[in-house]
Design a protein that fits this description.
It is a single chain. This protein has two domains: 5-174 and 343-358, Glycogen Phosphorylase B (Rossmann fold); 180-341, Rossmann fold. The protein contains 15 helices and 13 strands. It has helices spanning 19-36, 72-86, 111-114, 116-119, 123-140, 151-161, 177-180, 187-190, 212-221, 259-267, 284-290, 303-307, 324-328, 336-341, 344-358; strands spanning 5-8, 44-49, 63-66, 89-92, 104-106, 146-148, 168-170, 200-203, 227-230, 251-255, 271-274, 295-298, 312-314. α1 packs across α15.
Length: 359
C-alpha cells in the first residue's frame, strides 16, 4: 500500500498572501495533476480546521474537516493526532509542522534565523522567532525530505540549519492565479490622484528586509514621480524617522488591498518596484511580468536566479542613485522563459515527482 500524504490545511484560516498563496495554488495544481493520472488513486488528502472558510473546489483530492478553530493548537494537537491515527505523512507547505507528527515541510526561507533584528521589534515577533526556530530544529532532525522555492533558499537552509543538500528539493512559485482575478478599477476612485501609467507601484509588507526605505529615498530624491505602496503597515517593526511617509507628498500608501484592486494597480503602473533585500522567491515580479508590466528589482538574494535578464536591476543598498526612470531605461529581456519555467503546474509536478520517487 502506497504512502498517503495528509496536507496541513491550517493555511485556509489565514489571509491568502505569500506562503498561504503558495499552499493554496500548489494544492489546486496537485488536484489537477491527480485528474491526469489514471494509473493510481490520488495519494493526497487536504485536512482543514473546522472554521476553515472558502474551501477550494477540488475534484480529486478529498477534503476532511476536523476539530475547531485553526492555529497552532489545531496544527500541533488536532491535525497531529489525525495524522497518527491515519498512519499517513503530514505534508506541510507553510514553514511549520506538527512536532509529534512531523513529516514533509516546505521551508520557504530562513528569515527567522537571518533577519532576527528586524523581526524581533515586539513580543509577538520574538515569540514567532522561537516558534520557527523550533520548527527549524524539527526539520533538521526529521528523516523526511524538505522542500523550498529557490536554489538561494536551499543554500541558506544548508548554511544556517545544516540540513544536507540532498535532502532539500527546489520547487518554484507561479503566476496563473492572476488569470482568475478580475481587476477592480474602482480602486482609482479611492485614490483619484493616480493616473494610468504615471506611478510606480510597490507591493509588500513594511518589515525592514522588504527595504521600503529605498522607495522612500527615491520619492524624496525624485519628487516629479508618484509612488504607490500597498501592503500591511507593520509600523511597530520600524526604526527611525526615515519611515515617516508624511515627508514625501508624492507617496500614496494604500494599506492592505484585496487581490482585485492590487491587480488593477499593477496593470496600470509605470513599473513595479521590488526593492527587497532578501526573498525566498518573490511572487509580485512574476505577477507584474504576467501582465506585461516592467519590473525594477533589487539585485539581491534569489532575484537574479529567478528573473534572469527579464527585469531591470538596481543596487538596493544605494540610497543616492534611486532614479526609477533611469533604471527603467536599462535593457531587460523577454519575460517569456521566466513565465514558462515558474508555474504552479511545474511546482506540483516537481513535488509529486519527488514524493513518488521517495515513497
Amino acid at each position: 500500500m502506497k504512502t498517503h500524504f495528509l496536507i496541513n490545511g491550517n493555511y485556509l484560516t489565514r489571509p491568502q498572501v505569500g506562503i498561504e498563496r503558495f499552499a493554496a495554488e500548489t494544492v489546486l495544481a496537485l488536484d489537477s495533476l491527480c485528474s491526469r493520472k489514471n494509473d493510481d488513486e490520488c495519494r493526497y488528502t487536504l485536512v482543514v480546521p473546522g472554521n476553515a472558510a472558502n474551501l477550494p473546489a477540488l475534484q480529486n483530492i478529498p477534503i476532511i474537516r476536523i476539530g475547531g478553530n485553526g492555529g497552532i493548537f489545531w496544527e500541533q494537537f488536532v491535525f497531529a493526532h489525525y495524522v497518527r491515527v491515519q498512519r499517513g505523512i503530514s505534508l506541510n507547505l507553510c514553514n511549520t509542522m506538527p512536532m509529534t507528527a512531523a513529516g514533509i515541510v516546505c521551508i520557504h526561507d530562513v528569515f527567522y534565523r537571518t533577519m532576527k533584528r528586524s523581526l524581533s521589534q515586539n513580543f509577538h515577533g520574538r515569540l514567532s522567532i522561537l516558534w520557527h526556530e523550533l520548527n527549524y530544529w524539527r526539520a533538521k532532525h526529521s528523516p523526511f525530505p524538505v522542500f523550498t522555492v529557490s536554489q538561494y533558499s536551499k543554500n541558506e537552509i544548508t548554511r544556517n540549519l545544516h540540513i544536507a543538500q540532498n535532502r532539500i528539493h527546489v520547487l518554484c512559485n507561479g503566476w496563473e492565479h492572476f488569470r482568475r482575478i478580475t481587476a477592480d478599477d474602482s480602486v482609482f476612485r479611492k485614490f483619484p490622484a493616480l493616473k494610468h501609467g504615471h506611478y510606480y507601484f510597490t507591493l509588500g509588507s513594511m518589515a525592514d528586509y522588504k527595504n521600503i526605505r529605498w522607495v522612500l529615498h527615491s520619492a524624496q530624491n525624485h519628487p516629479e514621480n508618484t509612488y504607490v505602496i500597498t501592503g500591511k503597515m507593520m509600523l511597530s517593526a520600524f526604526n527611525g524617522d526615515e519611515y515617516d511617509f508624511s515627508k514625501s507628498s508624492n507617496i500614496i500608501v494604500t494599506g492592505y488591498l484585496p487581490d482585485a484592486e492590487i491587480k488593477a494597480l499593477m496593470t496600470h503602473c509605470k513599473a513595479l518596484i521590488f526593492p527587497s533585500l532578501s526573498e525566498g522567491f518573490g511572487i509580485p515580479p512574476l505577477e507584474a511580468l504576467s501582465l506585461g508590466r516592467p519590473v525594477l528589482a533589487a539585485r539581491s538574494s534569489c532575484i537574479p536566479e529567478i528573473y534572469g535578464s527579464a527585469v531591470h536591476y538596481f543596487n538596493p543598498l544605494d540610497y543616492e542613485h534611486t532614479d526609477p526612470d533611469l533604471i527603467l531605461s536599462s535593457d531587460a529581456g523577454s519575460p517569456d522563459e521566466v513565465l514558462r519555467k515558474n508555474t504552479w503546474c511545474q511546482c506540483a509536478e516537481k513535488m509529486n515527482s519527488v514524493l513518488t520517487a521517495l515513497f
